[in-house]
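Hey, resending since the last one bounced:
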Amino acid sequence: MSPLPLIWKLKRLLNIGSEKKSKEAIGVVDNVKVLEVENKLRHLRRHSLKTIKSEDGDIIDCIDLNKQPAFDHPALKNHKIQMAPTKNSAKKEPIEWTKSRSKTKDAEDSLSLRVLTSQIWKKSGTCPEGTIPIRRIRKNDMLKAPSIEEYGRKKPSFSPSRQVHENLDSYVPLRNHSKAILFAVGFRYLGAKADINVCWPFVEKDDEFSTAQISLLTGSYLHFESVQSGWAVNPRVYGDRQTRVFVYWTADGSNKTGCFDLTCPGFVQTSKEIALGAAIYPIIPVPGDLPYDINIYIYKDILTNNWWVQYGEKTNIGYWPAELFETLCYNADSVEWGGEVYSSKILHYPHTKTNMGNGKFGSQPYSAYFKRMRIHDNSESLKFPEYVDRYSDEYNCYDVRFLGDYVEDPELYYGGPGSSDYNYMCL
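The structure tokens again:
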């Protein structure tokens, strides 16, 4: 008998053995990761004084204010919590602007609920004084992340590629983020504000997200520092496709620092009224129906250099301590208002079907919008920036329209469907 069949049998047996060992090794790694995640979640909940079960499935833990996750950050070990912004840190709009708006509200503004202060979890209870509400991270959501450290962090827009030549390291964009924004540059920015239309965009895959946000940035393109806030639909972080209030920060372009909400140490929360990452209520996702807005204001404290987030023109949610940053603690170099979509299928065929905004282009009726956009610089009060410009990474997939002329107050319309049956230009 030919020896070849015997060799094939031996190889098959060896392969089965190696496959079995490989599976066993994977099982050990998985078990280690499960234990790490369980320990992390227990660590986050150890100071919970009350638990609230929301009707949408979220669990809200009321955590001791002075024992919140922020203080696990090495730079904040000796940080003294600031319970309220320094007086006059948050600038107001000129009185004449406020009076003018109140006298000339059009039909849309009279119907629109300009500020959303409600979240679904608040139907089921409130957190006691001295605590803050923290949305409980789900075990399965954290297990899906490549590592505990990467959970809740955006992937960087640029990353080193494989070597294309033995003596040449090549850096190419991942092309995984697509923006449609209005931006301001050229001044020292100490804050930014806007009314943001709340939408419910379609997100195609669990590892994609769609956001509408205000961002303040400084630093190089690859390692920028930034603070952001707005609404997001992010299945990987939140485990579903509900529209949720978020904050985000990074000190190095999301390479090794930063995260959404309180999923990593950094952001210090002071309010017991808003749970970061909790669903917004109500939402009317049908074009033409009653619009709902949230009002977000990010501003720097004039004495402590902490960056505060204000929600609904009255609730200071908390702040990013100055210790997290090297240059943003002084001022921002630019401000952005608009939408962002993350997908590994950005600039690839087939393109993602994930929506930005409400899925309509900014040039179409009833598209998503930003209104009452303001900046805080060295002026006495908030104002619209002297110079702005539009930008879209993929104008065939997501675009932006700016109304600055012949209107009382400039407006930004943005968004798009991504790839769809009726949008054959987005490939």
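The longest helix spans residues 3-45.

Sorry for the duplicate.
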